């Protein structure tokens, strides 16, 4: 389904308030590396996974509301935020493993996953690798369901990206970029919608270690032609998994048409479009975002995973096979870019 743009779901009854102390960063050492995370609230587990270059701070405005009805866990992925930034594996599959291991140390066996951008790809990969631990999927402007991506990210995947990111932090460059951003916003362009948030990501890379981790992460999922990995070829496995997609119709990073493609490929999924929003719909309209998450988690039962059902889905394969030649080419291309 696609929601009427101005509909607002009814808000759920609040269970408890959340103190400021609960929103502070906490730390766990997993496999010798420090992992930062925020954890607050009580109730069913809700894991918020940020996008590339971002951190758990991106969810800060939403956590107090969500934590009134859920146990909210918002990690800083390895190489991001206050987590360690080693020379390590920054693939989507490795991130899914890292989320599983952090949740295990926290005593959380299953959860609803909310993933934004790269985090959406991580959430999908988590559900693919650990379906028995996934209750629901909420994918927000998610990567991994199409090749297209903002040209700037393709540029940063090329050699010399370290110098470019370093140069963007110079005072003179920041002034020029700031002027360009104001011009793009004045012209009401889609990139103008997202530019302030994207610049904040550059500001979150203060040193060479942070920039190296960012570039290694980016190159694991993007090259000069676009997104490298995809879950499109395995979306049929979400049958029986409550799944909601949230997207801004002016997303300049991952085009909104990816939302419609993913919605079609995911049996029984729900699609909600944020009109006028860019790549960060939860920043553009946090009230609507929280209300949708609450309504969805309250109104759907957790996925009832079984080994037999999973085996049957794998044996049956993609619905329709490759009968449609155009769709077949797209899926074959997707398979070549599979995360596995």
From TrEMBL:
Annotated Gene3D superfamilies: alpha/beta hydrolase (3.40.50.1820)
GO molecular function, one term: hydrolase activity
Keyword Ribonucleoprotein: no
Top-rank lineage group of the source organism: Bacteria
InterPro entries, per the entry: AB_hydrolase_1, AB_hydrolase_fold, AB_hydrolase_sf
All residue ranges annotated as the AB hydrolase-1 domain in the record: 44-283
Keyword Hydrolase: yes
Keywords assigned: Hydrolase
Protein's name according to its UniProt entry: Alpha/beta fold hydrolase
Organism taxonomic ancestry: Bacteria, Bacillati, Actinomycetota, Actinomycetes, Kitasatosporales
